[in-house]
Write a structure and sequence with these properties.
The protein is of the alpha/beta class and about 240 residues long. The protein folds into two domains: about 30-70, no CATH class; about 70-215, Alpha/beta knot. Helix content is about 25%, strand content about 15%. It has a seven-stranded parallel β-sheet with strand order 3-2-1-6-4-7-5. The radius of gyration is 21 Å and the shape is elongated.
């Protein structure tokens, strides 16, 4: 259901009847200011041009993060120092959309934030110097790790029950999951593909895995299947 637009967010039309280029966000608050510590006086006075839901218009960033923390989903995403940094930004943006508990970047701290579209401001992003540090973090909290990679012996994501509390681990483009990560993962899952390519973009793979978790644990659409590694499933050729 669409939310009611905040004051000043209605689109405007040009004199010739054609829509003008829409400006992102809303202008200054019209009328008496609302009460509440979650409102940002500067945004109320100058307008809120951020890419946020209408319910968060004019809210302080810290207030938005705190509100999201109350309902975050208990799954984490970990990425092993991808060679294409833009993928990490895409993953952070998708993790924010699904209200993921946290994104963990393993290895190099610097990454191209352009693809995140500023959503990293509202998402908890953790850095680990190496894969061992990530594994230690997860073990201390009793959170299982599940790898996502198109490897021999991988179990189809489409038939594997995902734990409610889990760290979904992705390797970098090309090499994929490190050997250390593979050994420690409870399972390694692959995404079914039916075309000519051997793999899909890592950012897209992360989005598919996150949506699989949401379907299982938000929309109550779990799958029945093996919980341990099995031989790689070969799909029949479609006629």
């Amino acid at each position: 259901m669409n939310e009611r637009p905040a004051p000043g967010s209605e689109p405007t039309s040009a004199a010739n009847g054609e829509d003008e280029a829409r400006e992102v966000g809303v202008g200054p608050w019209v009328g008496p200011w609302p009460e509440g510590d979650h409102y940002d006086p500067e945004l109320l006075a100058q307008g809120d041009r951020r890419n946020v839901l209408d319910r968060y218009r004019y809210w302080r960033r810290e207030a938005i993060v705190a509100d999201l923390d109350n309902v975050r989903h208990p799954f984490h995403i970990a990425v092993e120092n991808w060679s294409h940094d833009f993928n990490i930004g895409s993953v952070v943006r998708t993790a924010n959309a699904f209200n993921c508990a946290g994104v963990h970047i393993v290895g190099r701290r610097r990454w191209n934030k352009r693809g995140a579209m500023v959503t990293d401001r509202y998402q908890h992003v953790h850095h680990h110097p190496d894969t061992s540090a990530l594994l230690e973090w997860a073990h201390e909290r009793g959170i299982p790790l599940v790898g996502v990679d198109n490897l021999p012996g991988a179990v189809p994501l489409e038939s594997h029950p995902l734990p409610r509390s889990v760290v979904l681990v992705f390797g970098q483009e090309g090499p994929g999951l490190s050997e250390e990560a593979r050994r420690d993962c409870e399972a390694v899952l692959s995404i079914a593909q039916f075309g000519s390519t051997r793999s899909i973009n890592a950012g897209a793979a992360a989005a598919i895995a996150m949506h699989a978790w949401v379907r299982a644990h938000v929309f109550d659409q779990p799958v029945d299947g093996p919980t341990l590694r099995t031989e790689h499933t070969e799909y029949p050729t479609l006629s």
